[in-house]
User: Fold this.
Amino acid sequence: MSRFFNQIIVRGLFFGVFICIFSLASLPANAAEEGGSKTDFIMHHVQDSHEWHFATIGHTHISVPLPVILFEPGEGLHFFMSSDFVDEDHNKIEVAGFYFDDHDHLAAKDESRSFYDISITKNVASLFVSVILLFWVFLTTAKRYQQDPLKAPKGVQSVFEPIIIFIRDEIARPNIGEKKYERFMPYLLSVFFFIWFNNLLGLLPGAANLTGNIAVTMTLALFTFVITTFSGTKDYWQHIFNTPGVPWWLKIPIPLMPLVEFIGILTKPFSLMVRLFANITAGHIIIMSLIALVFIFESVYIGPISVLFGLFMNMVELLVAFIQAFVFTLLSAIYFGLAVEEHHHEEHKEKLEKASV
Amino acid sequence: MLSSVLLLAVEGLALLGAGIGAGIVALGAGLGIGKIGGSAMESIARQPEAGGKVQTAMIISAALIEGVALFGVIVCLIIATS
Assistant:
Protein backbone atom coordinates (compact mmCIF):
# COMPACT_ATOMS: atom_id res chain seq x y z
CA MET A 1 0.00 0.00 0.00
CA SER A 2 2.70 2.47 1.00
CA ARG A 3 4.66 1.62 -2.17
CA PHE A 4 1.62 2.64 -4.17
CA PHE A 5 1.42 5.96 -2.33
CA ASN A 6 5.15 6.48 -2.81
CA GLN A 7 4.72 6.01 -6.52
CA ILE A 8 1.90 8.53 -6.63
CA ILE A 9 3.88 11.08 -4.67
CA VAL A 10 7.02 10.65 -6.74
CA ARG A 11 5.15 10.82 -10.02
CA GLY A 12 3.07 13.72 -8.82
CA LEU A 13 6.24 15.58 -7.86
CA PHE A 14 7.82 14.95 -11.24
CA PHE A 15 4.69 16.11 -13.01
CA GLY A 16 4.45 19.18 -10.81
CA VAL A 17 8.06 20.18 -11.39
CA PHE A 18 7.65 19.57 -15.10
CA ILE A 19 4.59 21.81 -15.26
CA CYS A 20 6.19 24.49 -13.13
CA ILE A 21 9.18 24.69 -15.42
CA PHE A 22 7.01 25.18 -18.43
CA SER A 23 4.79 27.70 -16.70
CA LEU A 24 7.95 29.69 -16.07
CA ALA A 25 7.73 30.50 -19.75
CA SER A 26 5.44 33.32 -18.69
CA LEU A 27 8.33 35.09 -16.94
CA PRO A 28 9.42 36.88 -20.10
CA ALA A 29 6.02 38.52 -20.15
CA ASN A 30 7.27 40.87 -17.44
CA ALA A 31 9.35 42.55 -20.07
CA ALA A 32 6.25 43.65 -21.93
CA GLU A 33 5.66 46.46 -19.46
CA GLU A 34 8.57 48.44 -20.76
CA GLY A 35 8.39 50.53 -23.90
CA GLY A 36 7.29 49.81 -27.42
CA SER A 37 4.18 47.93 -28.36
CA LYS A 38 2.85 45.26 -26.06
CA THR A 39 3.85 42.44 -28.36
CA ASP A 40 7.42 43.54 -29.04
CA PHE A 41 8.62 41.01 -26.53
CA ILE A 42 7.33 38.20 -28.75
CA MET A 43 9.63 39.19 -31.58
CA HIS A 44 12.44 39.80 -29.14
CA HIS A 45 12.17 36.24 -27.92
CA VAL A 46 12.20 34.48 -31.27
CA GLN A 47 15.05 36.53 -32.69
CA ASP A 48 18.76 36.45 -32.08
CA SER A 49 20.43 38.98 -29.82
CA HIS A 50 23.86 39.95 -28.58
CA GLU A 51 23.13 39.24 -24.95
CA TRP A 52 21.37 36.30 -23.35
CA HIS A 53 18.40 37.71 -21.52
CA PHE A 54 16.77 35.25 -19.16
CA ALA A 55 14.15 37.23 -17.31
CA THR A 56 13.22 40.63 -16.01
CA ILE A 57 11.95 40.74 -12.46
CA GLY A 58 10.67 44.18 -11.64
CA HIS A 59 13.40 46.44 -12.97
CA THR A 60 16.33 44.05 -12.81
CA HIS A 61 17.36 42.33 -15.99
CA ILE A 62 18.79 38.89 -15.49
CA SER A 63 20.94 38.58 -18.57
CA VAL A 64 24.36 37.40 -19.54
CA PRO A 65 26.37 39.68 -21.82
CA LEU A 66 27.99 37.84 -24.68
CA PRO A 67 31.20 38.55 -26.60
CA VAL A 68 30.97 40.75 -29.65
CA ILE A 69 33.54 39.83 -32.27
CA LEU A 70 33.94 41.97 -35.35
CA PHE A 71 36.20 41.30 -38.27
CA GLU A 72 37.22 44.34 -40.20
CA PRO A 73 39.18 43.54 -43.36
CA GLY A 74 42.45 45.38 -43.04
CA GLU A 75 42.15 46.02 -39.32
CA GLY A 76 41.71 42.51 -38.01
CA LEU A 77 39.49 41.25 -35.22
CA HIS A 78 37.91 43.46 -32.59
CA PHE A 79 36.74 41.91 -29.35
CA PHE A 80 34.19 43.50 -27.04
CA MET A 81 31.55 42.41 -24.58
CA SER A 82 27.98 43.40 -25.37
CA SER A 83 27.78 45.07 -21.97
CA ASP A 84 30.40 47.59 -23.19
CA PHE A 85 27.85 49.11 -25.49
CA VAL A 86 25.43 50.11 -22.74
CA ASP A 87 26.14 52.50 -19.87
CA GLU A 88 24.70 52.28 -16.34
CA ASP A 89 21.38 53.88 -17.31
CA HIS A 90 20.87 51.40 -20.12
CA ASN A 91 21.55 54.02 -22.74
CA LYS A 92 23.35 52.89 -25.84
CA ILE A 93 26.89 54.20 -26.15
CA GLU A 94 29.47 53.99 -28.83
CA VAL A 95 32.67 51.99 -28.45
CA ALA A 96 35.62 52.30 -30.86
CA GLY A 97 33.35 53.71 -33.51
CA PHE A 98 30.72 50.93 -33.31
CA TYR A 99 27.28 51.13 -31.81
CA PHE A 100 23.96 49.24 -31.80
CA ASP A 101 21.38 50.77 -34.07
CA ASP A 102 17.59 50.67 -33.68
CA HIS A 103 17.33 47.15 -35.04
CA ASP A 104 19.93 45.91 -32.55
CA HIS A 105 22.43 45.42 -35.33
CA LEU A 106 25.97 46.66 -35.04
CA ALA A 107 26.78 49.69 -37.16
CA ALA A 108 29.88 51.79 -37.63
CA LYS A 109 29.76 55.50 -36.96
CA ASP A 110 31.89 55.99 -40.03
CA GLU A 111 29.70 54.63 -42.81
CA SER A 112 32.58 53.67 -45.05
CA ARG A 113 33.98 51.06 -42.65
CA SER A 114 32.87 47.58 -43.66
CA PHE A 115 33.03 44.82 -41.13
CA TYR A 116 31.67 41.35 -40.50
CA ASP A 117 29.77 40.65 -37.32
CA ILE A 118 30.90 37.22 -36.17
CA SER A 119 29.95 37.64 -32.52
CA ILE A 120 28.96 34.91 -30.16
CA THR A 121 25.29 35.81 -30.12
CA LYS A 122 22.58 34.09 -28.09
CA ASN A 123 21.99 31.52 -30.82
CA VAL A 124 25.68 30.71 -31.16
CA ALA A 125 26.05 30.29 -27.40
CA SER A 126 22.99 28.03 -27.39
CA LEU A 127 24.54 26.09 -30.25
CA PHE A 128 27.69 25.51 -28.16
CA VAL A 129 25.60 24.32 -25.22
CA SER A 130 23.61 21.88 -27.33
CA VAL A 131 26.73 20.62 -29.11
CA ILE A 132 28.40 19.90 -25.77
CA LEU A 133 25.27 18.04 -24.70
CA LEU A 134 25.15 16.05 -27.93
CA PHE A 135 28.85 15.14 -27.68
CA TRP A 136 28.44 14.01 -24.10
CA VAL A 137 25.40 11.87 -24.86
CA PHE A 138 26.80 10.17 -27.93
CA LEU A 139 30.37 9.72 -26.80
CA THR A 140 29.00 8.02 -23.68
CA THR A 141 26.70 5.79 -25.71
CA ALA A 142 29.40 4.89 -28.22
CA LYS A 143 32.01 4.20 -25.54
CA ARG A 144 29.70 1.92 -23.61
CA TYR A 145 28.72 0.05 -26.76
CA GLN A 146 32.32 -0.32 -27.78
CA GLN A 147 33.39 -1.63 -24.40
CA ASP A 148 30.92 -4.48 -24.50
CA PRO A 149 28.59 -4.73 -27.49
CA LEU A 150 26.74 -7.69 -26.03
CA LYS A 151 25.96 -6.22 -22.63
CA ALA A 152 22.40 -5.08 -22.04
CA PRO A 153 22.34 -1.30 -22.34
CA LYS A 154 21.50 0.85 -19.37
CA GLY A 155 21.20 4.54 -18.70
CA VAL A 156 21.92 6.96 -21.51
CA GLN A 157 22.68 4.12 -23.86
CA SER A 158 19.30 2.49 -23.32
CA VAL A 159 17.47 5.65 -24.35
CA PHE A 160 19.44 6.44 -27.45
CA GLU A 161 20.22 3.05 -28.91
CA PRO A 162 16.56 2.24 -29.75
CA ILE A 163 16.20 5.64 -31.39
CA ILE A 164 19.36 5.11 -33.42
CA ILE A 165 18.05 1.74 -34.53
CA PHE A 166 14.69 3.31 -35.36
CA ILE A 167 16.41 5.78 -37.65
CA ARG A 168 18.42 3.02 -39.27
CA ASP A 169 15.51 0.63 -39.81
CA GLU A 170 12.61 2.97 -40.49
CA ILE A 171 14.26 5.93 -42.17
CA ALA A 172 17.58 4.95 -43.72
CA ARG A 173 17.13 1.36 -44.87
CA PRO A 174 13.72 1.61 -46.56
CA ASN A 175 14.54 4.82 -48.38
CA ILE A 176 18.17 4.49 -49.35
CA GLY A 177 18.34 0.74 -49.87
CA GLU A 178 20.24 -2.03 -48.14
CA LYS A 179 23.48 -1.57 -50.05
CA LYS A 180 24.17 2.11 -49.58
CA TYR A 181 22.43 3.27 -46.45
CA GLU A 182 25.48 3.01 -44.22
CA ARG A 183 27.27 5.87 -45.97
CA PHE A 184 24.54 8.27 -45.03
CA MET A 185 23.82 7.09 -41.50
CA PRO A 186 26.27 9.46 -39.73
CA TYR A 187 24.74 12.49 -41.37
CA LEU A 188 21.16 11.36 -40.82
CA LEU A 189 21.81 10.58 -37.17
CA SER A 190 23.60 13.88 -36.62
CA VAL A 191 20.92 15.95 -38.24
CA PHE A 192 18.09 14.16 -36.44
CA PHE A 193 19.52 14.53 -32.97
CA PHE A 194 20.79 18.04 -33.59
CA ILE A 195 17.37 19.26 -34.68
CA TRP A 196 15.53 17.33 -31.96
CA PHE A 197 17.77 18.49 -29.10
CA ASN A 198 17.73 22.09 -30.26
CA ASN A 199 13.98 22.10 -30.75
CA LEU A 200 13.54 20.78 -27.22
CA LEU A 201 16.08 23.15 -25.69
CA GLY A 202 14.37 26.06 -27.40
CA LEU A 203 11.17 25.29 -25.51
CA LEU A 204 12.73 25.88 -22.11
CA PRO A 205 12.05 29.31 -20.65
CA GLY A 206 14.94 31.64 -21.24
CA ALA A 207 16.35 29.55 -24.06
CA ALA A 208 17.46 30.68 -27.48
CA ASN A 209 15.38 29.89 -30.53
CA LEU A 210 18.12 28.17 -32.53
CA THR A 211 16.27 25.97 -35.02
CA GLY A 212 13.83 28.81 -35.57
CA ASN A 213 16.65 30.86 -37.05
CA ILE A 214 16.44 30.67 -40.79
CA ALA A 215 20.21 30.89 -41.18
CA VAL A 216 20.62 27.70 -39.15
CA THR A 217 17.94 25.81 -41.04
CA MET A 218 19.39 27.09 -44.30
CA THR A 219 22.75 25.61 -43.34
CA LEU A 220 21.16 22.25 -42.53
CA ALA A 221 19.23 22.26 -45.80
CA LEU A 222 22.45 23.18 -47.63
CA PHE A 223 24.18 20.15 -46.11
CA THR A 224 21.41 17.90 -47.41
CA PHE A 225 21.59 19.59 -50.80
CA VAL A 226 25.38 19.22 -51.06
CA ILE A 227 25.30 15.58 -50.03
CA THR A 228 22.48 14.82 -52.50
CA THR A 229 24.32 16.58 -55.32
CA PHE A 230 27.63 14.90 -54.67
CA SER A 231 26.20 11.43 -54.38
CA GLY A 232 24.09 11.63 -57.50
CA THR A 233 24.72 8.80 -59.89
CA LYS A 234 24.62 9.11 -63.64
CA ASP A 235 21.06 7.82 -63.57
CA TYR A 236 20.05 10.60 -61.20
CA TRP A 237 21.38 13.35 -63.46
CA GLN A 238 19.89 11.69 -66.49
CA HIS A 239 16.51 11.65 -64.81
CA ILE A 240 16.78 15.38 -64.27
CA PHE A 241 18.16 16.63 -67.55
CA ASN A 242 16.99 13.99 -69.95
CA THR A 243 14.01 12.37 -68.27
CA PRO A 244 13.32 9.04 -69.96
CA GLY A 245 9.80 8.53 -71.13
CA VAL A 246 9.13 12.25 -71.68
CA PRO A 247 8.33 13.30 -75.31
CA TRP A 248 11.21 14.99 -77.17
CA TRP A 249 9.32 18.20 -77.86
CA LEU A 250 9.37 19.01 -74.15
CA LYS A 251 13.15 18.96 -74.23
CA ILE A 252 14.54 20.19 -77.54
CA PRO A 253 13.41 23.69 -78.65
CA ILE A 254 12.76 24.94 -75.12
CA PRO A 255 14.10 22.60 -72.43
CA LEU A 256 10.93 22.76 -70.39
CA MET A 257 11.23 19.44 -68.61
CA PRO A 258 14.90 19.85 -67.62
CA LEU A 259 14.12 23.33 -66.36
CA VAL A 260 11.25 22.09 -64.20
CA GLU A 261 13.36 19.27 -62.83
CA PHE A 262 16.25 21.64 -62.14
CA ILE A 263 13.99 23.96 -60.19
CA GLY A 264 12.83 20.84 -58.38
CA ILE A 265 16.39 20.23 -57.18
CA LEU A 266 16.44 23.69 -55.64
CA THR A 267 12.97 23.74 -54.14
CA LYS A 268 13.44 20.54 -52.15
CA PRO A 269 16.12 21.85 -49.76
CA PHE A 270 14.32 25.21 -49.73
CA SER A 271 11.17 23.56 -48.44
CA LEU A 272 13.22 21.69 -45.83
CA MET A 273 14.59 25.00 -44.63
CA VAL A 274 11.29 26.85 -44.48
CA ARG A 275 9.35 23.95 -42.97
CA LEU A 276 11.62 23.62 -39.95
CA PHE A 277 12.02 27.36 -39.45
CA ALA A 278 8.30 28.10 -39.77
CA ASN A 279 7.14 25.24 -37.54
CA ILE A 280 9.47 26.08 -34.68
CA THR A 281 9.14 29.86 -34.84
CA ALA A 282 5.38 29.68 -35.23
CA GLY A 283 5.17 27.40 -32.21
CA HIS A 284 7.17 29.82 -30.10
CA ILE A 285 5.10 32.76 -31.30
CA ILE A 286 1.87 30.97 -30.44
CA ILE A 287 3.00 30.30 -26.89
CA MET A 288 4.21 33.88 -26.45
CA SER A 289 0.96 35.24 -27.88
CA LEU A 290 -1.07 33.23 -25.39
CA ILE A 291 0.95 34.84 -22.63
CA ALA A 292 0.59 38.23 -24.28
CA LEU A 293 -3.18 37.80 -24.01
CA VAL A 294 -2.85 38.80 -20.37
CA PHE A 295 -1.36 42.13 -21.38
CA ILE A 296 -3.70 42.77 -24.24
CA PHE A 297 -6.75 42.29 -22.08
CA GLU A 298 -5.01 43.96 -19.15
CA SER A 299 -6.79 41.71 -16.71
CA VAL A 300 -5.38 39.21 -14.28
CA TYR A 301 -8.30 36.83 -14.79
CA ILE A 302 -6.97 35.86 -18.20
CA GLY A 303 -4.05 34.35 -16.30
CA PRO A 304 -5.46 30.83 -15.73
CA ILE A 305 -6.69 30.56 -19.33
CA SER A 306 -3.34 31.77 -20.58
CA VAL A 307 -1.38 29.30 -18.51
CA LEU A 308 -3.67 26.38 -19.39
CA PHE A 309 -3.62 27.00 -23.13
CA GLY A 310 0.08 27.78 -22.96
CA LEU A 311 0.73 24.50 -21.21
CA PHE A 312 -1.27 22.63 -23.83
CA MET A 313 0.60 24.36 -26.63
CA ASN A 314 3.90 23.55 -24.96
CA MET A 315 2.98 19.86 -24.93
CA VAL A 316 2.05 20.09 -28.61
CA GLU A 317 5.37 21.77 -29.28
CA LEU A 318 7.20 18.90 -27.59
CA LEU A 319 5.54 16.59 -30.10
CA VAL A 320 6.27 18.97 -32.98
CA ALA A 321 9.93 19.06 -31.92
CA PHE A 322 10.23 15.34 -32.53
CA ILE A 323 8.04 15.32 -35.64
CA GLN A 324 9.99 18.09 -37.35
CA ALA A 325 13.31 16.38 -36.66
CA PHE A 326 11.85 13.12 -37.94
CA VAL A 327 10.42 14.69 -41.10
CA PHE A 328 13.65 16.56 -41.90
CA THR A 329 15.65 13.36 -41.53
CA LEU A 330 13.10 11.31 -43.46
CA LEU A 331 12.99 13.72 -46.38
CA SER A 332 16.78 13.92 -46.45
CA ALA A 333 16.90 10.12 -46.57
CA ILE A 334 14.35 10.10 -49.39
CA TYR A 335 16.41 12.60 -51.38
CA PHE A 336 19.57 10.54 -50.83
CA GLY A 337 17.69 7.44 -51.90
CA LEU A 338 16.58 9.17 -55.10
CA ALA A 339 20.14 10.23 -55.78
CA VAL A 340 21.77 6.84 -55.35
CA GLU A 341 18.96 4.79 -56.82
CA GLU A 342 20.08 2.24 -59.33
CA HIS A 343 17.63 2.16 -62.15
CA HIS A 344 17.26 -0.58 -64.69
CA HIS A 345 16.30 1.20 -67.87
CA GLU A 346 16.24 -1.91 -69.99
CA GLU A 347 13.32 -3.16 -67.94
CA HIS A 348 11.48 0.08 -68.56
CA LYS A 349 12.03 -0.01 -72.29
CA GLU A 350 10.94 -3.63 -72.54
CA LYS A 351 7.79 -2.92 -70.58
CA LEU A 352 6.96 0.05 -72.79
CA GLU A 353 7.47 -1.95 -75.97
CA LYS A 354 5.35 -4.78 -74.69
CA ALA A 355 2.61 -2.35 -73.69
CA SER A 356 2.57 -0.66 -77.08
CA VAL A 357 2.22 -3.99 -78.91
CA MET B 1 -4.77 65.50 -45.20
CA LEU B 2 -6.24 63.19 -47.78
CA SER B 3 -2.85 61.57 -48.37
CA SER B 4 -2.40 60.75 -44.67
CA VAL B 5 -5.87 59.24 -44.53
CA LEU B 6 -5.08 57.18 -47.63
CA LEU B 7 -1.80 56.05 -46.10
CA LEU B 8 -3.56 54.90 -42.94
CA ALA B 9 -6.20 53.16 -45.04
CA VAL B 10 -3.56 51.33 -47.05
CA GLU B 11 -1.75 50.25 -43.89
CA GLY B 12 -5.00 49.03 -42.42
CA LEU B 13 -5.80 47.13 -45.60
CA ALA B 14 -2.42 45.42 -45.48
CA LEU B 15 -3.07 44.25 -41.94
CA LEU B 16 -6.55 43.12 -42.97
CA GLY B 17 -5.03 41.16 -45.83
CA ALA B 18 -2.53 39.53 -43.52
CA GLY B 19 -5.25 38.54 -41.08
CA ILE B 20 -7.56 37.11 -43.71
CA GLY B 21 -4.61 35.35 -45.32
CA ALA B 22 -3.61 33.67 -42.09
CA GLY B 23 -7.20 32.56 -41.58
CA ILE B 24 -7.44 31.05 -45.04
CA VAL B 25 -4.09 29.30 -44.53
CA ALA B 26 -5.38 27.75 -41.31
CA LEU B 27 -8.54 26.65 -43.15
CA GLY B 28 -6.50 25.01 -45.90
CA ALA B 29 -4.23 23.20 -43.47
CA GLY B 30 -7.16 22.06 -41.36
CA LEU B 31 -9.05 20.70 -44.37
CA GLY B 32 -6.03 18.90 -45.77
CA ILE B 33 -4.84 17.32 -42.56
CA GLY B 34 -8.42 16.49 -41.59
CA LYS B 35 -8.82 14.53 -44.77
CA ILE B 36 -5.59 12.65 -44.16
CA GLY B 37 -6.54 11.89 -40.58
CA GLY B 38 -9.96 10.67 -41.64
CA SER B 39 -8.70 8.30 -44.30
CA ALA B 40 -5.93 7.10 -41.97
CA MET B 41 -8.50 6.22 -39.33
CA GLU B 42 -10.65 4.40 -41.85
CA SER B 43 -7.75 2.35 -43.09
CA ILE B 44 -6.61 1.46 -39.58
CA ALA B 45 -10.14 0.39 -38.79
CA ARG B 46 -10.26 -1.80 -41.87
CA GLN B 47 -6.87 -3.37 -41.30
CA PRO B 48 -5.47 -2.98 -37.81
CA GLU B 49 -2.29 -4.88 -38.71
CA ALA B 50 -1.25 -2.08 -41.07
CA GLY B 51 -1.75 0.43 -38.26
CA GLY B 52 1.93 1.24 -37.78
CA LYS B 53 2.63 1.96 -41.43
CA VAL B 54 -0.52 4.01 -41.85
CA GLN B 55 0.30 6.06 -38.80
CA THR B 56 3.80 6.79 -40.05
CA ALA B 57 2.53 7.81 -43.47
CA MET B 58 -0.13 10.00 -41.87
CA ILE B 59 2.40 11.86 -39.74
CA ILE B 60 4.67 12.44 -42.72
CA SER B 61 1.87 13.81 -44.90
CA ALA B 62 0.60 15.97 -42.06
CA ALA B 63 4.07 17.45 -41.55
CA LEU B 64 4.44 18.20 -45.25
CA ILE B 65 1.07 19.93 -45.47
CA GLU B 66 1.76 21.84 -42.29
CA GLY B 67 5.01 23.02 -43.87
CA VAL B 68 3.09 24.61 -46.72
CA ALA B 69 0.59 26.15 -44.32
CA LEU B 70 3.38 27.67 -42.28
CA PHE B 71 4.92 29.17 -45.44
CA GLY B 72 1.71 31.16 -45.64
CA VAL B 73 1.74 32.02 -41.94
CA ILE B 74 5.25 33.40 -42.18
CA VAL B 75 4.29 35.56 -45.15
CA CYS B 76 1.31 36.95 -43.25
CA LEU B 77 3.48 37.58 -40.20
CA ILE B 78 5.97 39.52 -42.29
CA ILE B 79 3.18 41.61 -43.76
CA ALA B 80 1.72 42.29 -40.35
CA THR B 81 4.91 43.25 -38.57
CA SER B 82 6.40 45.51 -41.22
The radius of gyration of chain B is 20 Å. The helical segments of chain B are 2-46, 51-81. The interface with chain A takes residues 56, 59-60, 63-64, 66-67, 70-71, 73-74, 77, 81 of chain B (CB under 8 Å).
